[in-house]
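Bench log, entry 3. Co-assembly request; chain sequences pasted below exactly as received.
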Amino acid sequence: MRDAAHLTLRGVALSLGGRPVLEGIDLTARRGETLVLLGPSGCGKTSLLRLVAGLLAPDAGEVQVNGAPPVPGRAAAMVFQSYRLLPWKSVRANVAFALPRLDPAERDARVARVLARVGLSRFAEAWPRELSGGMQQRVALARALVVEPELLLMDEPFAALDAQSRELMQAELLHLTGGPSGPTVLFVTHSVDEALVLADRVLLLSPRPGRIVEEVAVDFPRPRREHDPREAQDFPALRRRLWERLREMVLSDPHSDFFSGAG
Amino acid sequence: MAEARFLPPPLERTQSAAAPGGVGLVAALRLGFLAVVLVFWQLAANAAPGGLFASPFEVALALGRLAVGGSLWPALGESLSIYLAGTGVAVVVGIALGALMGMVRPVGRTLDIYVHGLAATPRVAFIPLIIVLLGLGFEAKVLVVFLGAVMPVILNAYAGVRAADPDLVEMARATGASHGRILAHVVLPGALPFLVAGVRIGATIGLINTVVAELYTAVAGLGGLLALYGSRFQMAEYLAVVVVLATIGVTMTEGLRLVERRMLRWRGRE
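Structure output for the full assembly:
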């Protein structure tokens, strides 16, 4: 089962407001695999996640999760960069929001379990504004994990955190999603290091309209909490290769701040 | 008649309570201001020719007579039932219509110009028409109150729903939430500061319209007492009724402020 295709995109194209955002996207994710989409700002990575979540429909091509077009809430759980907690609900109620159809007793038990897993049991009754950014993102992660998703979509979830929190959250994510029954993860980032730490495969996207220009298998041993990939011998070479491709794309993209015009 | 006004949500929050010793200080200042008003009232009463104005003390005595003699209570009951019925229906209908206008953009675009137009039309102009349709009784009066109170509620609910955070709505959609669930858990709670501001303005206009309705249709209730004592130049009784009306208004707005503070606890003290 773990080798079965969980997520398939074939020839996907998307335009938003008349501007092409994605073009000719083909990708397949095996069950339990962690795919990282790496690309410069504005390359349509977020739109790609929305397509997979079923929040957007492609203009061309097809998106399939478990062999069918995705339905929001059923196909996947999503974690956003800006946390998106409901400020008028307690931590507990924010997590429970993802489970409307469960009976209250079971829902409460599951919420309590997931809050314990992310280390926030003590803050169950707190308002979101009372928490730090890292804690708020852990609540958002708990809200995604509480539905026990088969597919976890993460849109630059740690980009707004300070360096220390980001590192801790990456380790926590590896811990929470690792294991034989862990979810398939589609993770968007523009950090090369983050991509290499988390990914089984890195897909490099070009600037708008986004296309997959390179696919890099990342074979560092797991569990990576125990074997930090950054200590692996070929980490620097891989890092340099991805970074150079990324840099090249940013410098030659006329929409980028760093466009030099020299090519 | 006062016009419905669109006001943004109040930003004052709970500053008074947040300041050191705030609650006690505010209460003391308010009582002090009341004392100043009473002094000036007394001075004005002394200066006015006899029979044209009444002193605070005379008004207090008149209020006692009205309360003991019994003519106050039926009038108060009648006015309150009209006021609360009209304002209550206005809150429910206003929030429902405003939310619909905000959620379904074509409905909002179609109706908002008419709502603004009606909000700017003195509702007193409709009273002859209302009398023709509904007569002079309870229903006619409730309709006058409703028409006054509903406009700010609609306009604020409309603005509040349109101001919903699209990121939060998208988050809710990603969890598979239905339209109803998004409305109940994301859009309306986010619009709450707008809704409470609208209800507070609506409640004020509703009270004004209660008296207007009681003066223009069958003369009854507190408005009826105003007409009666005004025409007889019983100024102490007349002002006693004014004090009762002011007390209703203050009770209502302070009650709403408490509701607001309780429902907006999540914002904290800023």
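The beta strands of chain A are 5-16, 19-30, 34-38, 60-65, 77-79, 151-155, 184-189, 201-205, 212-217. Chain A touches chain B through 25 residues (CB under 8 Å).
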